């Protein structure tokens, strides 16, 4: 049975570090450390920052969900601005931002986005082949 961790944060930049810390703790609890934990935490930071920055729905919350089983780990970040799907952007060297989705594509084994009835979700999937993860027997 897969293990999962799900939480919501207010749509405000000051809560991005909280999301990053909660992701890091869940990964540590599952025995996922080193480069994989660094990559997942970095992408959680990028996706939450994108949601906080680009979601135009006032007073909303960002949902972060991690799911792990024996073969894969999935990170999902959702916000209620369902009609504004992210698009990769070729930023110039002079631009300060615009590299987040390129980073997601580089570090995740797969990534994508989907529209849900009341939200959009951006997800990243990581293969766990060769990774020693501890999936709790009971949730």
Description:
- The N and C termini lie close together (9 Å).
- Helix 1 (16-29) packs antiparallel against helix 2 and helix 2 (34-54) packs antiparallel against helix 3.
- This protein is of the alpha+beta class.
- 31% of the residues lie in helices and 27% in strands.
- It has a single domain, classed as Heat Shock Protein 90, CATH 3.30.565.
- The protein has a five-stranded antiparallel beta sheet, with helices on one face.
- The chain contains three helices and five strands; from the N terminus they run E-H-H-E-E-H-E-E.
Lay out the secondary structure.
Layout: E1 3-10, H1 16-29, H2 34-54, E2 61-68, E3 72-79, H3 100-107, E4 110-115, E5 120-127
Antiparallel strand pairs: 1-2, 2-3, 3-5, 4-5
Helix pairs in contact: 1-2, 2-3
List keywords for this structure.
alpha+beta, single chain, 139 residues, 5-stranded antiparallel beta sheet
Question: What is the total number of structural domains?
Answer: 1
Strand content range: 25-35%
Q: Which CATH class?
A: Alpha Beta
* Straight-line N-to-C gap: 9 Å
Task: Give the total of beta strands.
Answer: 5
Poorly predicted regions are none
Q: What is shown here, in short?
A:
The protein is of the alpha+beta class and 139 residues long. The protein is built from 3 helices and 5 strands. The protein has one domain (3-127): Heat Shock Protein 90, CATH 3.30.565.10.
């Amino acid at each position: 049975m897969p293990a999962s961790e799900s939480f919501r944060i207010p749509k405000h930049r000051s809560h991005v570090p909280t999301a990053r810390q909660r992701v890091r703790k869940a990964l540590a609890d599952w025995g996922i450390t080193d480069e994989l934990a660094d990559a997942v935490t970095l992408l959680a930071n990028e996706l939450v920052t994108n949601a906080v920055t680009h979601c135009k729905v006032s007073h909303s919350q960002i949902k972060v969900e991690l799911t792990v089983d024996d073969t894969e780990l999935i990170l999902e970040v959702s916000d209620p601005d369902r009609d504004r799907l992210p698009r990769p952007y070729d930023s110039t060297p002079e631009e300060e931002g615009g590299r987040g989705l390129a980073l997601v594509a580089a570090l995740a084994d797969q990534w994508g986005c989907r529209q849900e009835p009341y939200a959009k979700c951006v997800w990243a999937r990581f293969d766990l082949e060769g990774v020693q993860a501890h999936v709790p027997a009971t949730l």
